[in-house]
């Protein structure tokens, strides 16, 4: 009976992975297609990769997207870490619960509601300062940091709860300044959570469309919005090539992050022994 259950669970898991990654595999395959057909494969070619790099509008949108994602990840990581430390050290349980509930709202709230609400907020703020074209890079950055911040907090908080605060208190008692003690004792222990939150913020910002659609301006266009504008006509295969490169980069980034986390955990276990 156990063997049948195990076989069924493995089959179910295999089907889930097929449904998840089969479309990506097809896209990657047709990014090497020598023709522009989406139903016949004419042979392997790097033609669409060269077309991708020759598309100035696509490359500009890609640069804008990467710039926005990097800025979002860095700012969200710093603010999220500070917020996590502040909430962890708070002794008011009611305040802590209220803040954690507020932290979960951007994740549970529908993106279209968040996007429309932030667009109205930015437009209203623009009218207060008599500025019409207020939407652009900075509004996108604020919006992306807003929805990425909770993911950093929820990754750092468990690491803080696992931390033995007696070590930090001992460092302070022995004459170490609180800031230095934080960077020497606390930071190494929560670094994996910060890195995980940073990578999640980067990937979430990289592929966000709904919130970006409502908070971007004509002066700053991200890649998802650029691709959406192409769907009104026809998505060219060079977008398959670009999407393939982005998928591979994110996959490699996640693998490196997992390897680094495993090494850190093994080192922590060896030090504990």
Report what the structure shows.
Helices cover 81% and strands 0% of the residues. The longest helix is centred in the last third of the chain and has 36 residues, at 237-272. The model has no long low-confidence stretch (mean pLDDT 84). With 273 residues, the chain is mainly α. The radius of gyration is 23 Å and the shape is globular.
Shape: globular
Q: What integer value in Å does the Rg equal?
A: 23 Å
The count of β-strands is 0
User: Can you summarize the main beta sheet?
Assistant: none
Poorly predicted regions: none
Strand content: under 5%
Output the number of helix runs: 11
Write the layout of secondary structure elements.
Elements: H1 2-30, H2 47-54, H3 56-89, H4 93-108, H5 111-128, H6 137-162, H7 165-173, H8 178-207, H9 210-215, H10 223-230, H11 237-272
Helix pairs in contact: 1-11, 2-11, 3-6, 3-8, 3-10, 4-6, 6-8, 7-8, 8-11
Summarize the structure.
The chain has 11 helices and no strands. The chain is mainly α. The model has no long low-confidence stretch (mean pLDDT 84).
